Amino acid sequence: MIRAILFDAGATLIHPSPPVEEIYGRELAADGARFSREELDSALARVWEEVHAEAKANRYGGVRGEGAFWGLFVNRVRFRLDGGSVSSACFDRLGTRFRDASSWALYPEVTEALDGLERRGLLLGVVSNWDSHLPKLLAALGLARRFREVAVSAIEETGKPDPEIFRRVCARLDLSPADCLHVGDSRREDFEGARAAGLRALLLDREGRHVDVPIADRITSLTEIENRL
User: Fold this and answer.
1) Where exactly are the structural domains of the chain?
2) 3-state secondary structure of 162
3) Among 35, 105, 114, 123, which is disulfide-ready with 17 (CB 3.0 to 4.6 Å)?
């Protein structure tokens, strides 16, 4: 019997508004970088993969290493674009923007979905690969009060798909992994990671990118969760 629902944060509950590419594009251009939108999109995607592969389980460098992690990421993006590096002012502006709740928005169905799950008496939590500012961001967006537990990879110093972060949250809720369902948009980190930890899992696939995943294991909206319990 499912007694708790755990959620990924980014691309599941919240998303950047305006999009990440627009924010980076505006700030890097103001810093003197010259690039096309295609070059920026490619640089952001490729460097993101590189730095996370290097960080492995210690996502975002842990709390003490966050500044270095983000500095590495932003400067690699800039170097890939034009061989330059970002100014300290540009780096500070980017950090301020992404920590500001006004740069983020809830997906339209989030409130309805959480309300329905709470009415059923289910415990709610978050398991996210994010830096240590996520709890403050969730609070500013009015979401923090919804969740009994919020596990953030930078704070835990372990992240999805490692089973450890899932197991810690289950233990804090005083539940077995089999009592918990995890929902997120990443096949590897959320769906496969949660299952490897012994949880049930649903893959959130709003855009129909994972049609090879059985429909019983896949949803297109968070409002579908209740019918899958």
Assistant:
1) 4-15+104-228, 18-102
2) coil
3) 105
What single DSSP character describes residue 207? Answer: T
For residue 47, give the nearest of 25, 26, 70, 19 by alpha carbon: 70
**Does the domain formed by 4-15+104-228 have CATH 3.40.50.1000?**
yes
Q: pTM of the full predicted structure? A: 0.94
Q: What is the domain class of 18-102 according to CATH?
A: mainly alpha
Report the DSSP pairing between strands 14-16 and 104-106: antiparallel
Residues 127, 128, 134, 139, Cα dihedral to 10°: -40
Q: What is the pLDDT of residues 77-105, one digit of tens each?
A: 999 999 999 999 999 999 999 999 999 99
CA atoms of 61 and 82, how far apart (whole Å): 26
Closest by Cα among 44, 100, 98, 53 to 75:
44
Output the DSSP codes for 39-66. HHHHHHHHHHHHHHHHHTTSGGGHHHHH
**What is the number of other CB atoms lying within 10 angstroms of the CB of residue 192?**
15
Residue with tokens 């961001």: 137
Number of neighbouring beta carbons within 10 Å of residue 127: 32
Closest CA to 2 of 205, 201, 143: 201
Rounded-to-integer distance, Cα 164 and Cα 145, Å: 24
Tens of pLDDT along 135-183? 999 999 999 999 999 999 989 988 999 999 999 999 999 999 999 999 9
Q: Are 142 and 102 in contact (CB under 8 A)?
A: no
Scan for tokens 């993101």, then name that residue: 48
